[in-house]
Write a structure and sequence with these properties.
single chain, mainly alpha, Na+/H+ antiporter like fold
Length: 309
């Protein structure tokens, strides 16, 4: 447990530094936007390419790993939609609120997952984390866009071609495809060394940007909804993955990485999607913020569970 805390504590300290830098205006808001853009479109994709391009994928139980993640995510999504369908007859008009709860519970923060897994499990762990991104990002992006289109305040019919193209253009998905392709055809040392240098600059900046995005403000009116979003995401989702892993027989490091993917906070882009597609953006921001704070306790606990039980 002490080793886990030693590995994870710097992550939350860097997030806290990012928050302080934003609050004190030492770094302006427009700079944070540029940092997020750089991390998302260049630095983290290169980290994924670096990891996948020379990973020993033959040793990874890809089928079982994929099955656990997909069933857990789809199962939670279906459960949330069924609950909303039942409750909206008693509480009409809550569509935008539901979309933010849906995103907050089903999606996961790839930056935090990579930063957690890397120091603890090295390149083997990052390889699995990259595979989790390749599996979950397309599926969860599509599900979120569809839910926002159906239940958001705009209530637009989802344009599936536009959704599909958006997923295909996601830089993390492109990075996974590029890394797998390079793993197959090989990559010269000089190119690989360049990729390594660029990729190594990503996680620190990404975590500072996570901190800068926190909004610890007025949340009293939404405390019940925030609590549901935090508890279901940070406790319910990893418990569901643990159950699926037990049923399917996934063990060892792949099981641990799957649990961590379920135990990290929701994706930072959830707020942008909520704002642009008719979700409850204020609730989405509060859920994200309090998930990061609560994960200081819950994430180490689930890592310990994953490693010892």
């Amino acid at each position: 447990m002490l080793a886990t805390l030693n590995a994870i504590t710097p992550i939350f300290l860097i997030i806290a530094i990012g928050y302080l830098l934003f609050r004190t205006r030492i770094v302006g808001e427009e700079v944070w936007s540029a940092i997020e853009h750089l991390c998302f479109y260049l630095l983290l994709p290169f980290l994924i390419i670096r990891t996948l391009s020379r990973a020993n994928l033959g040793s990874v139980p890809i089928a079982d790993f994929t099955l656990v993640l997909v069933i857990a995510m789809l199962g939670m999504s279906v459960l949330l939609i069924l609950i909303h369908t039942i409750l909206r007859q008693r509480y009409p008009g809550g569509g935008p609120t539901f979309t933010s709860l849906f995103q907050g519970i089903t999606r996961f923060h790839g930056f935090v997952a990579l930063a957690t897994i890397g120091p603890l499990y090295g390149d083997d762990g990052v390889t699995l984390a990259a595979l989790a991104l390749a599996i979950m990002v397309p599926m969860l992006n599509m599900l979120s866009v569809v839910v926002l289109s159906l239940y958001g305040s705009g209530s637009n019919n989802p344009e599936f071609r536009a959704v599909f193209m958006r997923v295909l253009k996601n830089p993390l998905i492109i990075a996974c495809a590029a890394g797998l392709a390079l793993n197959w055809i090989g990559v010269p040392d000089i190119i690989f060394d360049t990729i390594v240098i660029i990729g190594n600059g990503g996680l620190g900046l990404a975590l500072l940007a996570v901190g800068a995005g926190l909004r610890i403000g007025q949340a009293a009116d939404q405390k019940l909804l925030i609590a549901i979003g935090v508890i279901t995401r940070l406790i319910g989702m990893p418990l569901l993955i643990i159950g699926m892993a037990s049923l399917i027989g996934l063990e060892g490091l792949p099981r641990t990485v799957a649990i961590i993917a379920g135990a990290v906070p929701t994706a930072a882009t959830s707020y942008v999607m909520a704002r642009k597609m008719g979700g409850n953006a204020e609730l989405m921001s509060n859920i994200m913020t309090f998930q990061v704070i609560a994960a200081i306790v819950t994430l180490p606990a689930f890592i310990y569970i994953a490693e010892h039980y």
